[in-house]
Amino acid sequence: MPGMTGLELLQTIRQLGMHDIKVGFVTTESSARHLDEAHRNGAAFVVNKPFNTEELKQAVLSVLQDASGVEDAIEAAAPAQPPTAAAVPRQAIDVAEIASILSLSSIVCKIERIEPVPIEHVKLPYVIGIYSAPDSKAVDAVCLMDLNAACMLGGAMAKQSADQVKAAILAKTLNRDVYENCTSFLSDLSGMISRSSGKRGTLSSSHLVQKPFGKLFELMGNNYGRADLSISFPAYGDGFISVLLS
User: Fold this and answer.
1) Are the CB atoms for 204 and 190 separated by under 8 Å?
2) What confidence score (pLDDT) does residue 145 get?
3) How far apart are CA 78 and CA 71, in angstroms?
4) 142 falls within a domain
5) What is the mean pLDDT of each run of 10 residues along the chain (246 residues)?
6) What is the DSSP string of the chain?
């Protein structure tokens, strides 16, 4: 580009307050420092040359999957005031059951409860699953998976190598197979979440979210039950899952 670099253009766009514009890079740049700088300035993806058509397609898809309706979808899941008592019986999220669900896919991992993680510390983008009763617009629960958990879990189900998973985490990109595997896992959690919430809900939608938003902050603070979990994969690393009952 004459006159400025792509990174300088991105920085200028952000300085002008145009934060909703999605910017991706197709570049020969391979320096980890420069790639990290691009992501810190809000790059939606980075695809290195040479690349194939499918690689670029999946990178763009990761941006298009950022469903604009996710904020409206959890509107009913964010009470204005912290709840004082649950209207229906609640049960603790069953860590052993999550591990059992994953074991059916021959996935070896370790899941542990952890202290609540502030939403601003969760690695973007993240996958959100929304659970509702059939024919109901009310949201019964929300499950959030950070970038690491989504790439590792979806990648493991897709039989990706550790190098492929790590590259996806660095590029902040979930390809179609990985995203669909994450959605499948979220769907498998429906029964456990229904028992925990005391409501008969199923996975109504899943979304790839590129940035946090007000209703999510509100829900993370005001809910009828929350379980934060670390999920660790040998050779892959650690990720984070949060289940919020509304």
Assistant:
1) no
2) 93
3) 10
4) yes
5) 85 83 85 82 84 77 60 63 52 79 79 87 85 80 92 90 88 82 92 79 84 78 84 88 87
6) --SS-HHHHHHHHHHTT-TT---EEEES---HHHHHHHHHTT-SEEEESS--HHHHHHHHHHHHTS-TTHHHHTGGGS-SS--SS-SS------HHHHHHHHHTTT---EEEEEPPPPGGGSPSSEEEEEEE-TT--S--EEEEE-HHHHHHHHHHHTT--HHHHHHHHHHT---HHHHHHHHHHHHHTHHHHHHHHTS--EEEEEEEESS--HHHHHHHHS-SEEEEEEEEETTTEEEEEEEEE-
Tokens of 24: 């991706």
Domain that holds residue 27: 6-51
Q: Which two tokens stand for residue 53?
A: 């058509």
* In a shared domain, residues 97 and 206: yes
Q: Does 175 reside within a domain?
A: yes
Global model pTM greater than 0.85 = no
173-196: pLDDT as tens digits: 787 888 889 999 999 999 888 887
Is residue 207 a part of any domain in this protein?
Answer: yes
Q: Are residues 156 and 43 part of one domain?
A: no
Sign of the torsion formed by the C-alpha atoms of 139, 81, 71 and 115: negative
pLDDT at res. 79: 56
Residue 106: give its domain's CATH number: 3.40.1550
